[in-house]
C-alpha cells in the first residue's frame, strides 16, 4: 500500500491546530487559536499554551485594575467565581493567579532544534520573498523543496550537507525516507510537533498553499515540502525528530477557572450596559418616515461609530453600517498597480476581476497623473540602485547623507509642515478623478476570474445590500463610504485599512457599488423588486480616512442638479471631522494634530485602529444613534421587520459576525500575550520579504499585532481584552432557528468564543442571553430611556 496518501492525510490533520496567516501587505485579522475553535475557550487556551507557549488570559494586575476602575461589577465577579467553583474572595483569587507556576524561563544555551529553526527560517525567508530581495533565491520556480534541496547542499551553516544531497527530489519521497521505521500511527503527532515549532511560518505556508495567487503560482510551496526541509535539517543537526514525552501537566486548572471567572465578569459588566442601552432604545423607538437630506453607508468597523455620530449631529443625515467590501467579492486592479488584490474578506472568495481604466474625455488629468507618478517612480528607482549598488553605496551616503538626514529630521521634528509640503507638491489628479471601475461584464476577457458583472449580478448585489440593511426609502444623495488609514512609516499599515477588504482600502469597493446603483437599468429592476428609488436619488462613492476622520467624496458621477446638495454635504463633513477628531485628541487644533500623526514617520501609533472593540450590535441605527459607544462597537444595520424569513439575519450571523469574532480574538490575544500571539515591540522588529516581521534578525514569522497597537505602555494595556459581546435586535425564535441551521456559528457560541444576547421586539423588548445548546436565559430589561457612555481608557 502506498504511503503517499497516508503521509498527506497525516500532514493535513497535523496542521489543523495552526491558524492561517496572511502577508503583511494584505493583513487579514485572524484568531491565532483558530485551529482550536472547536474546543471550549478554556481548553483552547490550555492547548495554545502547550503547543505555542502562549498565555490566554489577562494578567492578574490587569484584572485588578479593571476592578478598581469599576469596569468589573463586584457582584457579577462573586457570582462568576462561585459558578466556576472558585473561592469568592477577589483578592485571594488574584493572589492565587500570581502564585501559579510560570513557564517563562528561557535557557541560554542554544539547542540543535534552535539551529534547525534558524537555518530553516533563513531559507523560508529567501524563498517566500515577494520582491524585496535584490538577489532572489535561485530555482524558486521549481518549488520550495527542490530549491532548498539544490541550494542547501552548499550552506556552510549545515554540518551534514551530504544527508540533504542524498534525499529524493520529491518531498513526499524525502519524508518517507526521513521517517525511517517510525510507524504511520505516530506520523501525525510527529508532524504536529514540527509544524507548531514555527507556527507563523507554518500558518503563512498553509494560507499561501490554500489560496494560490500569483506568487504561489510562480513559486509554489506546500506543507509537505516545508516539512521535508525541516526534517532534513533535523537529521543534519542531529536534533530530536520525535516529540518529547509529555511531563505531568503544568497548567493549573484552578488558575484557568479563576481567570475565566474574572474575564466572564468583566465581559458581563460591559455587556450589561450595552444590552440595557439597546433594550431601552428599542422600547422607546419612534418611527420616522421623513426623508433625510442624505444617507451614508459606512463599514461596520468600530472607528466608523465615532464619525457617524458626528455626521448625524451636523444635519438631517442618516447613517448605516454594512461590511466594507459592500458585498461585491472582487479582485481589484488599480490604474497603475503592479498586482491585483482580493478586496473581500477571507470568508468569501473573489468572483469578479474589476480594474480601474481611464474614462473617455479625461486625457489631461490622466497625463498629469502619469507625469507625476513617472517622475516620482524614476527617482525612487535611481535612489534604490544607488543605495544597493556595491560600487556607489558608500559614495551615495557621503554625498546625500546631509540631505537625507535633514529629510528624516523634518519628518520627525516638523511632520505637520512636511504634510503641508507634500500636499502642495502632490497636486496631480488622483486616479479616481479620471478612471472608472470596469463593472460591465466582458465575455471576451481572458483571465482567471470573470471581468466585470452581468446585469443580473449587479441587481443582486444592490438588492442584497439594501435587504441586509432593511432600507425602505432613499435620500437625494446616498454615499457609500469605504475606509482607509494614512500612515508614514508602519509595516502594519494594512492592519489599519479595511478588514472586510482583506487589509486594503475600501474606496474601490464603494466606487463599484455606487457605479452599480447609478445604472439606470439596475435602478429599474430594483424598483420592480420593491425598492422605491426616486428619480432624483444619486449614489456617490467616498472614503473615510480613519487617521484624520476626513471623508472624501468621489463626485465625478454627481449631476449639476445635485451640486448644492454636495456643497452642503462637504461643508458638514468638514465640521464632523473637526468634532470627531476633537473627541479623539486633546489638541487645540485636532484636525491638524491627526494630520501631523499621519505624516510623522516616527509616530508609534497614528491611530488606535480597532483597539477597544468589544461589542457588535445588529439592528436599526435608531437603537444606537443616541448612544456614545466610544468607538468600541461594530454596527451592522438590520431591520427584522423587513426580513420575515430571517435570510438576511442568517447572512449577517454567518458572515460579518464570524469575521468580527476573528478581529476581536486577534486583538484579545495580541494584548494578553504580545510576544507569542502578537508581534512584540515595533522597536525590535525587522520586516522580512515583504510578507511579515521578525523580532531581531530571524526566527518565526510574527502574525499578530505589535505591542504599540494594543498597549499604551509596556505594562499598560489600552485595549480591554474582552471577548466579543453581540447584541441582535430580532425575535429570539428567529435567531434560534438560524443557529439550529448553522452548526459552525452555534459551535463558536457554545464554546464561548463570543457571547450573544437578543433583544426581542415582539416580547416587550426583553433581553435573552444565549446559554448554549440553543437555550436562553431571560433577562428583564429596564424600559426607561437612557444615554450611557461605555467607558474606555483615554485615547492619548
* Beta strand count: 20
Oligomer: single chain
Spans where pLDDT lies below 50 across 5 or more residues: 386-394, 781-796
Mean pLDDT: 89
Can you summarize the main beta sheet? 6 strands, mixed
Radius of gyration from CA coordinates: 27 Å
**What's the N-to-C terminus distance?**
65 Å
The helix content is 40-55%
Give the overall shape, derived from the CA principal axes: globular
Number of helices: 28
* Beta-strand content bin: 5-15%
Which structural class do the helices and strands define?
alpha/beta
- Work out the count of structural domains: 4
Strand order of the largest sheet: 12-11-17-18-19-20
Describe the structure.
- This protein is an alpha/beta fold.
- The protein has 4 domains: 4-24 and 111-237, no CATH class; 31-103 and 250-284 and 655-796, no CATH class; 293-357 and 434-612, no CATH class; 363-425, no CATH class.
- It is 44% helix and 12% strand.
- The strands form 5 sheets. The protein has a 6-stranded mixed β-sheet with strand order 12-11-17-18-19-20, sandwiched between helices. A 5-stranded mixed β-sheet has the order 2-1-8-9-10.
- A hairpin with a 5-residue loop joins β18 and β19.
- α18 crosses α23 (590-599).
- The longest helix has 32 residues, at 253-284.
- It is globular and about 80 Å long.
- The protein starts with a helix and ends in a 17-residue tail after the last strand.
Amino acid at each position: 500500500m502506498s504511503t503517499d496518501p497516508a503521509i498527506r492525510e497525516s500532514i493535513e490533520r497535523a496542521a489543523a491546530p495552526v491558524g492561517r496567516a496572511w502577508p503583511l501587505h494584505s493583513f487579514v485579522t485572524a484568531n491565532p487559536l483558530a485551529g482550536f475553535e472547536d474546543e471550549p475557550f478554556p481548553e483552547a487556551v490550555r492547548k495554545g499554551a502547550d503547543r505555542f507557549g502562549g498565555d490566554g488570559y489577562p494578567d492578574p494586575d490587569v484584572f485588578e485594575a479593571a476592578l478598581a476602575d469599576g469596569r468589573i461589577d463586584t457582584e457579577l465577579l462573586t457570582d462568576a467565581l462561585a459558578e466556576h467553583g472558585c473561592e469568592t474572595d477577589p483578592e485571594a483569587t488574584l493572589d492565587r493567579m500570581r502564585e501559579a507556576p510560570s513557564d517563562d524561563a528561557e535557557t541560554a544555551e542554544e539547542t540543535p532544534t534552535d539551529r534547525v529553526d534558524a537555518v530553516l527560517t533563513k531559507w523560508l525567508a529567501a524563498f517566500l520573498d515577494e520582491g524585496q530581495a535584490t538577489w532572489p533565491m535561485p530555482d524558486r520556480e521549481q518549488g520550495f523543496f527542490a530549491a532548498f534541496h539544490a541550494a542547501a547542499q552548499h550552506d556552510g551553516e549545515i554540518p551534514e550537507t551530504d544527508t540533504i544531497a542524498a534525499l529524493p527530489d520529491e518531498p513526499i519521497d524525502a519524508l518517507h525516507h526521513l521517517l525511517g521505521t517510525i510507524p504511520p500511527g505516530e506520523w501525525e503527532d510527529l508532524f504536529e510537533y514540527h509544524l507548531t515549532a514555527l507556527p507563523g511560518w507554518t500558518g503563512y505556508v498553509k494560507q499561501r498553499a490554500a489560496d494560490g495567487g500569483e506568487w504561489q503560482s510562480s513559486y509554489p510551496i506546500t506543507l509537505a515540502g516545508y516539512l521535508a526541509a525541516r526534517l532534513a535539517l533535523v537529521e543534519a543537526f542531529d536534533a530530536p525528530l520525535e516529540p518529547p514525552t509529555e511531563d505531568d501537566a503544568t497548567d493549573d486548572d484552578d488558575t484557568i477557572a479563576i481567570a475565566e471567572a474574572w474575564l466572564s465578569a468583566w465581559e458581563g459588566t460591559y455587556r450589561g450596559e450595552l444590552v440595557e442601552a439597546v433594550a431601552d432604545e428599542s422600547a422607546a423607538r419612534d418611527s420616522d418616515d421623513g426623508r433625510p437630506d442624505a444617507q451614508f453607508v459606512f463599514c461596520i468597523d468600530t472607528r466608523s461609530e465615532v464619525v457617524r455620530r458626528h455626521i448625524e449631529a451636523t444635519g438631517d443625515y442618516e447613517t448605516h453600517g454594512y461590511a466594507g467590501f459592500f458585498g461585491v467579492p472582487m479582485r481589484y486592479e488599480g490604474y497603475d498597480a503592479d498586482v491585483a488584490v482580493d478586496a473581500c474578506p477571507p470568508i468569501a472568495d473573489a468572483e469578479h476581476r474589476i480594474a480601474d481604466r481611464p474614462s473617455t474625455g479625461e486625457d489631461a488629468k490622466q497625463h498629469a497623473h502619469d507625469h507625476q507618478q513617472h517622475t516620482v517612480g524614476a527617482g525612487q528607482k535611481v535612489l534604490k540602485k544607488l543605495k544597493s549598488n556595491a560600487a556607489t553605496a558608500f559614495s551615495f551616503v557621503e554625498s546625500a547623507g546631509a540631505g537625507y538626514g535633514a529629510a528624516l529630521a523634518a519628518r520627525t521634528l516638523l511632520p505637520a509642515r512636511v504634510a503641508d509640503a507634500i500636499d502642495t507638491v502632490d497636486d496631480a489628479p488622483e486616479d479616481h478623478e479620471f478612471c472608472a471601475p470596469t463593472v460591465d461584464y466582458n465575455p471576451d476577457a481572458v483571465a482567471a476570474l470573470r471581468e466585470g458583472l452581468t446585469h443580473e449580478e449587479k441587481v443582486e448585489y444592490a438588492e442584497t445590500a439594501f435587504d441586509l440593511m432593511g432600507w425602505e426609502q432613499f435620500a437625494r444623495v446616498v454615499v457609500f463610504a469605504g475606509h482607509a488609514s494614512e500612515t508614514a512609516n508602519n509595516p502594519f499599515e494594512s492592519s489599519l485599512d479595511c478588514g472586510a477588504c482583506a487589509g486594503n482600502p475600501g474606496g474601490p469597493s464603494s466606487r463599484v457599488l455606487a457605479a452599480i446603483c447609478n445604472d439606470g437599468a439596475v435602478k429599474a429592476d430594483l424598483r420592480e423588486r420593491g425598492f422605491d428609488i426616486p428619480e432624483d436619488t444619486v449614489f456617490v462613492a467616498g472614503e473615510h480616512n480613519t487617521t484624520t476622520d476626513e471623508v472624501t467624496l468621489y463626485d465625478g458621477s454627481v449631476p449639476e442638479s445635485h451640486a448644492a446638495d454636495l456643497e452642503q454635504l462637504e461643508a458638514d463633513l468638514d465640521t464632523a471631522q473637526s468634532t470627531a477628531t476633537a473627541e479623539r485628541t486633546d489638541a487645540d487644533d485636532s484636525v491638524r494634530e491627526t494630520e501631523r500623526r499621519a505624516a510623522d514617520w516616527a509616530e508609534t501609533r497614528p491611530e488606535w485602529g480597532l483597539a477597544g472593540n468589544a461589542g457588535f450590535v445588529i439592528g436599526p441605527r435608531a437603537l444606537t444613534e443616541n448612544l456614545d459607544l466610544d468607538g468600541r462597537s461594530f454596527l451592522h444595520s438590520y431591520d427584522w421587520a423587513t426580513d420575515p424569513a430571517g435570510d438576511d439575519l442568517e447572512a449577517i450571523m454567518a458572515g460579518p459576525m464570524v469575521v468580527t469574532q476573528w478581529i476581536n480574538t486577534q486583538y484579545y490575544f495580541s494584548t494578553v500575550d504580545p510576544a507569542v500571539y502578537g508581534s512584540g515591540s515595533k522597536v525590535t522588529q525587522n520586516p522580512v520579504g515583504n510578507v511579515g516581521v521578525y523580532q531581531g534578525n530571524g526566527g518565526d514569522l510574527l502574525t499578530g499585532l505589535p505591542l504599540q497597537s494594543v498597549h499604551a505602555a509596556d505594562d499598560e494595556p489600552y485595549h480591554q481584552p474582552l471577548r466579543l459581546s453581540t447584541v441582535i435586535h430580532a425575535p429570539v425564535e428567529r435567531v434560534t432557528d438560524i443557529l439550529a441551521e448553522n452548526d459552525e456559528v452555534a459551535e463558536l457560541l457554545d464554546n464561548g468564543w463570543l457571547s450573544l444576547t437578543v433583544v426581542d421586539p415582539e416580547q416587550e423588548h426583553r433581553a435573552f442571553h444565549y446559554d448554549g445548546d440553543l437555550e436562553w436565559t431571560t433577562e428583564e430589561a429596564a424600559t426607561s430611556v437612557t444615554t450611557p457612555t461605555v467607558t474606555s481608557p483615554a485615547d492619548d
